[in-house]
Amino acid sequence: MERSQQRWVLAVLCGVLFLTFLDTTIVAVALAPIQSHLHAGVDELQWVIGGYAVAFAALMLVFGAIGDRYGRRKMMLAGLMLFVAGSIVAALSPSPLVLIIARVIMGIGAAASEPGTLSMLRHLYPEETSRAKALGTWAAVASFALAIGPVLGGILVGLDGWPTIFWFNAVAGAIAVGFAFRVLPESSDRGVGAIDKLGSIVGPVALAVLVVGIVEGELKGYGAPIIIACFVVAFAGALGFAWTEHRARNPLFRLGFLRNIPFSGALVLAFSVYFAIFAIFFFVALYLEVVKGDSAYLIAGVFAAMMVTMILASLASGRWLRGTNVRVFTGLGAFLAAIGIALSDYALSGPTHPLLLAITLAIAGIGFGFVVVPVTSIALSTVPPEHSGMAAAATNTMRALGITMSVAILGSFLNGELTGGLSAKLARLGVPPVFRQVVINAVETGGVAGHTGGAANTYGPIVDRVINAAYSSFHAGLTESLVVATALMVLGGVISLLTRSRHTQAP
Asked: Is the pTM of this model over 0.90?
């Protein structure tokens, strides 16, 4: 393939990637107007986000395997058209239920489209150095999509309400279909045999039930019988999936690849880095907005530092990456990210200076950028080319799980501090029970920041003590989240140092 044609193909693949990654964050800014217009409850709003994530995470392995066998271009085109259809239904939704169904359809379309953006790169760039550069571009586009989502979503909602987001998705998706149809070459590996039908059912069901348990557990409590049942079913399904794949002639996921330490390590790192990214992206932003009362423009400026360095580091690591440097890049990146996260928590401990926080987030961004490209490169380079769709789907599944679990699990930590920790502090201050929930609700919705002066004049110094207790509880929850994210990145750095640096193919 000529170089100019390679560039066109890479551009189209990155366009598809941008669209599916963008939808991970663009809808978050539309939840308030959706709630107002469709009269949606909190649990329904949770599934406006979670419906997309569950379908996305659960079905990528299946669609990656189908694309390997019957055509990656065909699968990508089908997924994009489904994504467009779901976007149109979402834009016209008359009720929360219809919107949630539309989001699930969009997630299915994204799951069908996403694996091809990586697996086709393996065939488009067979030489490792050029592939690493292309993967650097891929990772930079993914970072940019995640970063620009809330900004673009806010602009679109401001222009003509929340449906504008989905009309944008529909138009952009239709354009992507046209370019993909004209530019992308077909690739497949028909010699791998028929798809594993039983594994295609058991695996996604187990994964979907697990994600449902995580998301709903934040709302209903992780000790609720229905949530415990979800985890039991997910565990049993995982065992069933492993048994099925071990016996299948053409398994959906070859368990033997997990014996390849670089490949397994790449999956762990893919989960860890996106878990940590979203710990910062959502919870630090929430803290700045709710507790510090910072403006949206100031918050965007602070986070721009992390996203710029992450994009630049992704591009640089793609150009510098060599087989002998994989361990160095991933280890250095993971430890830098851990340092940046820890320093960010320190910067948030007292009066927060935007410049100091921007510097600490920029350090974390460099670390993230140094990890995402080697992780993807390892996953694709350590399996035979005919299984590149499986490798790409497995990596993206771990990314999606990292995002989903970060928001759900760390959100439960934060809610635990606000309900348990803050309630205990308010009780010690002598605040009556009826007013404790009022304070908690005010903190959760941002009703405290910047509105305490009049209350202090009316009710005296007790107001300042209540506000300080609320802020310290919120910060305690944030610290727990960032400590978990830091620990995961340290673990990732250790795994990188213990992983062989030369790529080897799994059996």
From this structure: no
User: Which of 319, 374, 415, 340 is closest to 499 using CA atoms?
Assistant: 374
Is residue 228 very low, low, confident or very high in pLDDT (cuts 50, 70, 90)? very high
- For 157, the token pair is 């909602």
pLDDT of res. 43: 65
Burial of 351-374, coded b for 16+ CB within 10 Å and e otherwise, reads ebebebbbbbbbbbbbbbbbbbbb
Q: Comparing 338 with 494, which gets the higher pLDDT?
A: 338
pLDDT class of 507 with cuts at 50, 70, 90: very low
Give the chain's mean pLDDT: 78
User: How far, in Å, CA of 315 to CA of 144, rounded?
Assistant: 12
| Largest Cα span, the chain | 78
Q: Which of 124-128, 304-308, 406-410, 435-439 has the highest mean pLDDT?
A: 304-308
CATH number for the segment(s) 260-507 = 1.20.1250.20
Average pLDDT estimate for 108-131: 80
27, 49 in Cβ contact below 8 A?
yes
Supply 481's token pair.
């989240």
How far is it, in rounded angstroms, from Cα 364 to Cα 387?
33
Length of the chain: 507
Q: Are 104 and 51 in contact (CB under 8 A)?
A: yes
Neighbour tally for 148: CB within 10 Å: 17
Query: What's the topology of domain 1-193?
Result: Growth Hormone; Chain: A; (1.20.1250)
DSSP string across 448-506: STT--HHHHHHH-THHHHHHHHHHHHHHHHHHHHHHHHHHHHHHHHHHHHHS-SS----
Specify the range with the lowest mean pLDDT, choosing from 43-57, 67-81, 157-171. 43-57
Residues 6+ apart with CB under 8 A from 283: 410, 411, 414, 478, 481, 482
Quote the Cα angle for 460-461-467, to 5°: 115
Q: In what helix (H) or strand (E) does residue 257 lie, and over which residues does it extend?
A: none
Nearest to 318 by CA among 443, 56, 485, 141: 141
CA distances from 494 to 331, 338, 488 (A): 7, 12, 10
The residue assigned the tokens 């028929």 is: 194
* Tens digit of each residue's pLDDT (9 = 90 or more) over 318-327: 666 654 567 7
Same CATH topology for 1-193 and 260-507: the answer is yes
Q: Where are the domains of the chain?
A: 1-193, 196-249, 260-507
The span from the CA of 163 to the CA of 505, in Å, is 47
**Minimal CA–CA distance to 175: which of 18, 48, 26?**
18
Q: Are 321 and 373 in contact (CB under 8 A)?
A: yes
Amino acid at 9: V
